[in-house]
What we know:
Elements: H1 3-32, H2 38-61, H3 65-86
Helix pairs in contact: 1-2, 1-3, 2-3
Amino acid sequence: MNETWILILAGLAGAALGALFFGGLWWTIRKGTSSQRPALWFFGSFLLRTSLTLAGFYQVAGGHWQRLLACLVGFVMVRLIVMQLTRTAQQPTAWVAEADHAPES
């Protein structure tokens, strides 16, 4: 197979790994915040997501640094897309006057 196609497939595999990693992170945050044991959710998810991602990188690279780099680029591209999609509004919709709660002397 042409090396260019292999690098494109490695980039797509990296994008799939990124979607798995960041999708799992999103799911963990939703489940972990309402759980009785959030530390278990977050730690377990971290171990699983990291293990799967590193194993995927290892398989895709196959001993070639060019494939590893293409995979990493796909992973980072998904990260940037996820950050853009989940970004909250930077500007407040309305300014609320602060209340003075200091005790009077």
